[in-house]
Amino acid sequence: MKELTSIITDAIKEKIFSGIAIEVMQNGKPVISEYFGTTSFEAEVEKNEDVTALHLFDLASLTKPLCTTLLCNTLLESNLVSVDSKIAEIFDQYALNFNKALAPITIKNLLNHSSGLEAWAPIYKFIKNRSDGYMFVRSRNLEYPTGTKHIYSDLGYIMLGEIIEILMEKRLDHLFELYISEILDLHNLKFIPSNIDTDDDKFVCSGYSDLRNKLLFGEVNDQNCFAFGGVAGHAGLFGSAKDVCTLADHLRECLVGTPVTPLISKTFAATMLEKSKVDPEWANGWHYPTKGKSTAGNFISDNSIGMTGTTGTSVWIDLEKNITVTILSNRTISPDAVKFGWEKDKFSSLRPKLHDAILGVIR
Q: Domains plus CATH for the chain?
Protein backbone atom coordinates (compact mmCIF):
# COMPACT_ATOMS: atom_id res chain seq x y z
CA MET A 1 0.00 0.00 0.00
CA LYS A 2 3.04 2.28 -0.11
CA GLU A 3 2.17 3.48 -3.61
CA LEU A 4 -1.40 4.36 -2.58
CA THR A 5 -0.19 6.20 0.53
CA SER A 6 2.35 8.14 -1.53
CA ILE A 7 -0.24 9.16 -4.15
CA ILE A 8 -2.69 10.34 -1.51
CA THR A 9 -0.09 12.17 0.58
CA ASP A 10 1.05 14.10 -2.48
CA ALA A 11 -2.55 14.87 -3.47
CA ILE A 12 -3.33 16.35 -0.06
CA LYS A 13 -0.16 18.46 -0.24
CA GLU A 14 -1.32 19.75 -3.63
CA LYS A 15 -4.74 20.49 -2.14
CA ILE A 16 -6.56 18.24 -4.58
CA PHE A 17 -8.73 17.21 -1.62
CA SER A 18 -8.38 17.55 2.14
CA GLY A 19 -9.59 14.07 3.03
CA ILE A 20 -10.25 10.69 1.47
CA ALA A 21 -11.77 7.38 2.55
CA ILE A 22 -11.22 4.06 0.79
CA GLU A 23 -13.05 0.81 1.41
CA VAL A 24 -12.56 -2.31 -0.71
CA MET A 25 -14.28 -5.67 -0.45
CA GLN A 26 -13.47 -8.93 -2.22
CA ASN A 27 -15.77 -11.95 -2.15
CA GLY A 28 -17.91 -10.18 0.42
CA LYS A 29 -15.08 -9.49 2.88
CA PRO A 30 -13.23 -6.22 3.63
CA VAL A 31 -9.68 -6.23 2.26
CA ILE A 32 -8.69 -2.54 2.36
CA SER A 33 -9.82 0.20 4.75
CA GLU A 34 -7.82 3.43 4.54
CA TYR A 35 -8.54 6.97 5.76
CA PHE A 36 -6.34 9.98 5.11
CA GLY A 37 -6.37 13.72 5.72
CA THR A 38 -8.77 16.08 7.41
CA THR A 39 -12.36 17.19 6.93
CA SER A 40 -11.32 20.62 5.65
CA PHE A 41 -8.28 22.66 4.60
CA GLU A 42 -9.29 25.42 6.97
CA ALA A 43 -7.28 24.98 10.17
CA GLU A 44 -9.35 27.61 11.95
CA VAL A 45 -12.62 25.80 11.23
CA GLU A 46 -13.92 24.30 14.46
CA LYS A 47 -15.20 21.19 12.68
CA ASN A 48 -11.83 20.45 11.06
CA GLU A 49 -10.60 17.04 12.23
CA ASP A 50 -9.03 13.84 10.96
CA VAL A 51 -11.22 11.82 8.60
CA THR A 52 -12.50 8.61 10.20
CA ALA A 53 -14.85 5.75 9.35
CA LEU A 54 -17.68 7.72 10.97
CA HIS A 55 -17.47 10.74 8.68
CA LEU A 56 -20.10 11.25 6.01
CA PHE A 57 -19.22 12.48 2.53
CA ASP A 58 -21.46 14.23 0.04
CA LEU A 59 -21.94 11.39 -2.48
CA ALA A 60 -23.25 13.61 -5.31
CA SER A 61 -24.14 11.49 -8.37
CA LEU A 62 -23.67 8.19 -6.55
CA THR A 63 -27.26 8.97 -5.54
CA LYS A 64 -28.28 7.97 -9.06
CA PRO A 65 -27.28 4.27 -8.91
CA LEU A 66 -27.42 3.72 -5.14
CA CYS A 67 -30.84 5.26 -4.58
CA THR A 68 -32.84 6.18 -7.66
CA THR A 69 -31.87 3.16 -9.77
CA LEU A 70 -32.40 0.71 -6.91
CA LEU A 71 -35.80 2.19 -6.08
CA CYS A 72 -36.81 1.54 -9.70
CA ASN A 73 -36.56 -2.15 -8.83
CA THR A 74 -39.26 -1.64 -6.22
CA LEU A 75 -41.45 0.02 -8.84
CA LEU A 76 -40.98 -2.90 -11.21
CA GLU A 77 -41.52 -5.53 -8.52
CA SER A 78 -44.76 -3.79 -7.54
CA ASN A 79 -45.88 -3.90 -11.20
CA LEU A 80 -46.36 -0.12 -11.10
CA VAL A 81 -44.29 0.33 -14.26
CA SER A 82 -42.00 -1.57 -16.59
CA VAL A 83 -38.69 -0.33 -17.99
CA ASP A 84 -40.54 0.30 -21.24
CA SER A 85 -43.29 2.42 -19.64
CA LYS A 86 -43.48 5.83 -21.28
CA ILE A 87 -43.60 9.21 -19.60
CA ALA A 88 -46.99 9.88 -21.16
CA GLU A 89 -48.48 6.87 -19.36
CA ILE A 90 -47.21 8.10 -16.00
CA PHE A 91 -47.58 11.86 -16.09
CA ASP A 92 -50.78 12.28 -18.07
CA GLN A 93 -53.05 12.53 -15.03
CA TYR A 94 -50.57 14.37 -12.79
CA ALA A 95 -48.92 17.10 -14.85
CA LEU A 96 -51.26 19.86 -15.98
CA ASN A 97 -48.50 21.37 -18.07
CA PHE A 98 -47.43 18.09 -19.61
CA ASN A 99 -44.80 18.56 -22.31
CA LYS A 100 -45.80 16.37 -25.26
CA ALA A 101 -42.22 16.33 -26.58
CA LEU A 102 -41.32 14.12 -23.62
CA ALA A 103 -44.00 11.51 -24.34
CA PRO A 104 -41.70 8.89 -26.00
CA ILE A 105 -39.25 8.80 -23.07
CA THR A 106 -39.25 5.47 -21.20
CA ILE A 107 -38.01 4.49 -17.75
CA LYS A 108 -35.08 2.78 -19.48
CA ASN A 109 -34.22 5.99 -21.36
CA LEU A 110 -34.02 7.81 -18.04
CA LEU A 111 -31.96 5.04 -16.45
CA ASN A 112 -29.35 4.91 -19.22
CA HIS A 113 -29.22 8.65 -19.99
CA SER A 114 -30.72 8.42 -23.48
CA SER A 115 -33.87 10.47 -22.80
CA GLY A 116 -32.88 13.50 -24.88
CA LEU A 117 -33.03 15.79 -21.86
CA GLU A 118 -30.11 18.17 -21.45
CA ALA A 119 -27.26 17.32 -19.12
CA TRP A 120 -27.77 20.22 -16.72
CA ALA A 121 -29.60 23.51 -16.26
CA PRO A 122 -29.45 26.14 -13.47
CA ILE A 123 -32.80 25.06 -12.01
CA TYR A 124 -32.06 26.75 -8.70
CA LYS A 125 -32.28 30.16 -10.35
CA PHE A 126 -35.91 29.70 -11.32
CA ILE A 127 -37.64 27.78 -8.52
CA LYS A 128 -38.83 28.26 -4.96
CA ASN A 129 -39.66 24.65 -4.02
CA ARG A 130 -39.49 21.02 -5.17
CA SER A 131 -42.80 21.24 -7.03
CA ASP A 132 -41.48 24.15 -9.08
CA GLY A 133 -38.34 22.16 -9.77
CA TYR A 134 -40.19 19.17 -11.14
CA MET A 135 -42.37 21.42 -13.27
CA PHE A 136 -39.23 23.10 -14.63
CA VAL A 137 -37.76 19.76 -15.74
CA ARG A 138 -41.04 18.66 -17.34
CA SER A 139 -41.12 21.88 -19.36
CA ARG A 140 -37.74 21.39 -21.04
CA ASN A 141 -37.30 20.71 -24.74
CA LEU A 142 -35.31 17.71 -25.90
CA GLU A 143 -31.73 18.29 -27.06
CA TYR A 144 -31.71 15.19 -29.29
CA PRO A 145 -34.23 12.50 -30.34
CA THR A 146 -34.96 10.08 -27.50
CA GLY A 147 -32.92 6.86 -27.66
CA THR A 148 -30.50 7.97 -30.39
CA LYS A 149 -27.49 8.63 -28.13
CA HIS A 150 -26.44 8.98 -24.51
CA ILE A 151 -25.77 12.26 -22.71
CA TYR A 152 -25.28 12.03 -18.96
CA SER A 153 -28.24 13.96 -17.57
CA ASP A 154 -29.01 15.23 -14.10
CA LEU A 155 -32.41 16.32 -15.38
CA GLY A 156 -33.27 12.79 -16.45
CA TYR A 157 -32.67 11.49 -12.93
CA ILE A 158 -34.56 14.37 -11.36
CA MET A 159 -37.51 13.31 -13.51
CA LEU A 160 -36.99 9.66 -12.55
CA GLY A 161 -37.01 10.70 -8.89
CA GLU A 162 -40.33 12.46 -9.38
CA ILE A 163 -41.82 9.37 -11.05
CA ILE A 164 -40.76 7.24 -8.08
CA GLU A 165 -42.28 9.72 -5.62
CA ILE A 166 -45.56 9.92 -7.54
CA LEU A 167 -46.03 6.17 -7.85
CA MET A 168 -44.78 5.23 -4.38
CA GLU A 169 -46.42 8.22 -2.66
CA LYS A 170 -43.44 9.13 -0.48
CA ARG A 171 -40.41 11.40 -0.78
CA LEU A 172 -37.14 9.83 -1.94
CA ASP A 173 -35.40 10.11 1.42
CA HIS A 174 -38.18 8.20 3.16
CA LEU A 175 -38.26 5.58 0.40
CA PHE A 176 -34.49 5.12 0.56
CA GLU A 177 -34.68 4.55 4.30
CA LEU A 178 -37.65 2.20 4.04
CA TYR A 179 -36.48 0.01 1.16
CA ILE A 180 -32.68 0.21 1.35
CA SER A 181 -30.84 1.62 4.37
CA GLU A 182 -33.08 0.14 7.08
CA ILE A 183 -33.14 -3.29 5.45
CA LEU A 184 -29.33 -3.42 5.32
CA ASP A 185 -28.84 -1.58 8.64
CA LEU A 186 -26.90 1.25 6.99
CA HIS A 187 -27.46 4.19 9.30
CA ASN A 188 -24.53 6.20 7.92
CA LEU A 189 -26.04 6.34 4.46
CA LYS A 190 -28.88 8.83 4.04
CA PHE A 191 -30.21 12.03 2.55
CA ILE A 192 -29.67 15.21 4.54
CA PRO A 193 -32.79 17.36 3.98
CA SER A 194 -32.13 21.06 4.52
CA ASN A 195 -34.56 21.27 7.44
CA ILE A 196 -33.16 18.54 9.71
CA ASP A 197 -30.78 18.72 12.67
CA THR A 198 -27.36 17.29 11.78
CA ASP A 199 -25.64 17.69 15.15
CA ASP A 200 -25.44 13.92 15.68
CA ASP A 201 -23.47 13.35 12.46
CA LYS A 202 -19.87 14.03 11.45
CA PHE A 203 -19.28 15.48 7.98
CA VAL A 204 -16.41 16.06 5.61
CA CYS A 205 -16.52 19.56 4.10
CA SER A 206 -17.63 19.51 0.45
CA GLY A 207 -16.49 23.01 -0.48
CA TYR A 208 -17.39 26.65 -0.20
CA SER A 209 -20.66 27.98 -1.60
CA ASP A 210 -20.66 31.53 -2.89
CA LEU A 211 -24.45 31.49 -3.00
CA ARG A 212 -24.75 30.33 0.60
CA ASN A 213 -21.65 32.25 1.73
CA LYS A 214 -20.18 29.43 3.83
CA LEU A 215 -18.22 26.19 3.92
CA LEU A 216 -20.54 23.23 3.48
CA PHE A 217 -20.73 20.61 6.23
CA GLY A 218 -23.79 18.40 5.93
CA GLU A 219 -25.30 20.54 3.18
CA VAL A 220 -25.36 19.15 -0.32
CA ASN A 221 -22.85 20.81 -2.66
CA ASP A 222 -25.09 20.51 -5.73
CA GLN A 223 -27.03 23.76 -5.93
CA ASN A 224 -29.96 22.25 -7.83
CA CYS A 225 -30.35 19.53 -5.22
CA PHE A 226 -30.12 22.16 -2.48
CA ALA A 227 -33.00 24.00 -4.18
CA PHE A 228 -34.96 20.73 -3.93
CA GLY A 229 -34.45 20.78 -0.16
CA GLY A 230 -31.47 18.42 -0.30
CA VAL A 231 -33.47 15.49 -1.71
CA ALA A 232 -33.51 14.70 -5.44
CA GLY A 233 -33.04 11.81 -7.84
CA HIS A 234 -29.66 12.97 -9.12
CA ALA A 235 -27.91 13.96 -5.86
CA GLY A 236 -28.41 14.38 -2.12
CA LEU A 237 -27.13 11.17 -0.51
CA PHE A 238 -24.46 11.40 2.17
CA GLY A 239 -22.60 8.38 3.43
CA SER A 240 -19.61 6.83 5.12
CA ALA A 241 -17.23 4.81 2.97
CA LYS A 242 -18.09 1.61 4.87
CA ASP A 243 -21.82 1.93 4.36
CA VAL A 244 -21.45 2.88 0.70
CA CYS A 245 -19.17 -0.09 0.09
CA THR A 246 -21.51 -2.42 2.00
CA LEU A 247 -24.47 -1.36 -0.15
CA ALA A 248 -22.47 -1.62 -3.38
CA ASP A 249 -21.14 -5.05 -2.44
CA HIS A 250 -24.63 -6.22 -1.56
CA LEU A 251 -25.63 -5.14 -5.03
CA ARG A 252 -22.71 -7.18 -6.41
CA GLU A 253 -24.08 -10.22 -4.58
CA CYS A 254 -27.50 -9.56 -6.08
CA LEU A 255 -25.99 -9.42 -9.56
CA VAL A 256 -23.78 -12.52 -9.33
CA GLY A 257 -25.64 -14.74 -6.86
CA THR A 258 -28.40 -14.94 -4.28
CA PRO A 259 -27.85 -12.79 -1.18
CA VAL A 260 -29.61 -13.34 2.14
CA THR A 261 -31.45 -10.04 1.76
CA PRO A 262 -31.95 -9.46 -1.97
CA LEU A 263 -32.01 -5.80 -2.89
CA ILE A 264 -33.05 -6.37 -6.47
CA SER A 265 -34.90 -9.07 -8.34
CA LYS A 266 -33.21 -11.37 -10.86
CA THR A 267 -35.28 -9.73 -13.59
CA PHE A 268 -34.08 -6.25 -12.69
CA ALA A 269 -30.51 -7.51 -12.25
CA ALA A 270 -30.50 -8.56 -15.88
CA THR A 271 -32.10 -5.26 -16.87
CA MET A 272 -29.53 -3.27 -14.90
CA LEU A 273 -26.60 -4.96 -16.65
CA GLU A 274 -28.12 -4.68 -20.11
CA LYS A 275 -25.76 -2.80 -22.41
CA SER A 276 -27.19 -0.13 -24.66
CA LYS A 277 -27.34 -0.99 -28.35
CA VAL A 278 -26.43 2.60 -29.16
CA ASP A 279 -23.34 2.66 -26.91
CA PRO A 280 -22.39 -0.50 -24.95
CA GLU A 281 -20.58 1.52 -22.29
CA TRP A 282 -23.98 2.53 -20.92
CA ALA A 283 -26.02 0.24 -18.67
CA ASN A 284 -29.23 1.05 -16.80
CA GLY A 285 -28.16 3.21 -13.88
CA TRP A 286 -24.48 2.40 -14.29
CA HIS A 287 -21.57 2.70 -16.70
CA TYR A 288 -19.21 0.05 -18.04
CA PRO A 289 -15.45 0.85 -18.18
CA THR A 290 -14.34 3.06 -21.05
CA LYS A 291 -11.70 1.10 -22.92
CA GLY A 292 -8.24 2.52 -22.25
CA LYS A 293 -9.44 5.51 -20.23
CA SER A 294 -11.67 4.25 -17.45
CA THR A 295 -11.85 6.20 -14.21
CA ALA A 296 -11.27 2.80 -12.57
CA GLY A 297 -7.82 2.44 -14.16
CA ASN A 298 -6.21 -0.42 -16.05
CA PHE A 299 -6.88 -3.40 -13.81
CA ILE A 300 -10.68 -3.34 -13.67
CA SER A 301 -12.28 -6.12 -15.74
CA ASP A 302 -14.56 -5.39 -18.70
CA ASN A 303 -17.39 -7.00 -16.72
CA SER A 304 -17.59 -4.15 -14.22
CA ILE A 305 -20.04 -1.36 -13.52
CA GLY A 306 -19.36 1.95 -11.85
CA MET A 307 -20.29 5.57 -11.28
CA THR A 308 -18.51 8.72 -10.18
CA GLY A 309 -19.64 11.82 -8.33
CA THR A 310 -18.59 15.43 -8.86
CA THR A 311 -17.56 15.84 -5.23
CA GLY A 312 -14.79 13.24 -5.71
CA THR A 313 -16.66 10.02 -5.06
CA SER A 314 -16.82 6.76 -6.96
CA VAL A 315 -17.97 3.15 -6.76
CA TRP A 316 -16.76 0.38 -9.04
CA ILE A 317 -18.05 -3.19 -8.87
CA ASP A 318 -15.98 -5.84 -10.64
CA LEU A 319 -18.40 -8.68 -11.29
CA GLU A 320 -15.68 -10.96 -12.66
CA LYS A 321 -13.22 -10.61 -9.77
CA ASN A 322 -15.90 -10.04 -7.10
CA ILE A 323 -14.25 -6.80 -5.98
CA THR A 324 -16.05 -3.64 -4.86
CA VAL A 325 -14.05 -0.41 -4.64
CA THR A 326 -15.39 2.70 -2.90
CA ILE A 327 -13.43 5.95 -2.93
CA LEU A 328 -14.86 9.04 -1.24
CA SER A 329 -13.09 12.40 -1.19
CA ASN A 330 -13.95 16.09 -1.08
CA ARG A 331 -12.57 17.18 -4.43
CA THR A 332 -14.98 20.15 -4.54
CA ILE A 333 -13.09 21.87 -1.74
CA SER A 334 -10.05 22.19 -4.03
CA PRO A 335 -9.50 25.60 -5.67
CA ASP A 336 -8.15 23.62 -8.65
CA ALA A 337 -11.50 21.89 -9.14
CA VAL A 338 -13.41 25.15 -9.10
CA LYS A 339 -10.97 26.77 -11.54
CA PHE A 340 -11.12 23.99 -14.13
CA GLY A 341 -14.76 22.99 -13.85
CA TRP A 342 -14.21 19.47 -12.44
CA GLU A 343 -13.33 17.91 -15.80
CA LYS A 344 -9.76 19.07 -16.45
CA ASP A 345 -8.61 19.32 -12.86
CA LYS A 346 -5.92 17.21 -11.23
CA PHE A 347 -8.43 14.90 -9.58
CA SER A 348 -9.66 13.62 -12.95
CA SER A 349 -6.23 12.18 -13.79
CA LEU A 350 -5.76 11.01 -10.20
CA ARG A 351 -8.84 8.75 -10.15
CA PRO A 352 -7.43 5.94 -12.35
CA LYS A 353 -4.08 6.08 -10.52
CA LEU A 354 -5.84 5.51 -7.21
CA HIS A 355 -7.69 2.51 -8.62
CA ASP A 356 -4.52 1.07 -10.16
CA ALA A 357 -2.73 1.36 -6.81
CA ILE A 358 -5.64 -0.40 -5.09
CA LEU A 359 -6.40 -3.11 -7.65
CA GLY A 360 -2.71 -3.71 -8.33
CA VAL A 361 -2.41 -5.05 -4.77
CA ILE A 362 -5.40 -7.38 -4.74
CA ARG A 363 -5.88 -8.49 -8.36
A: 2-65+175-362 (3.40.710.10), 80-170 (no CATH)
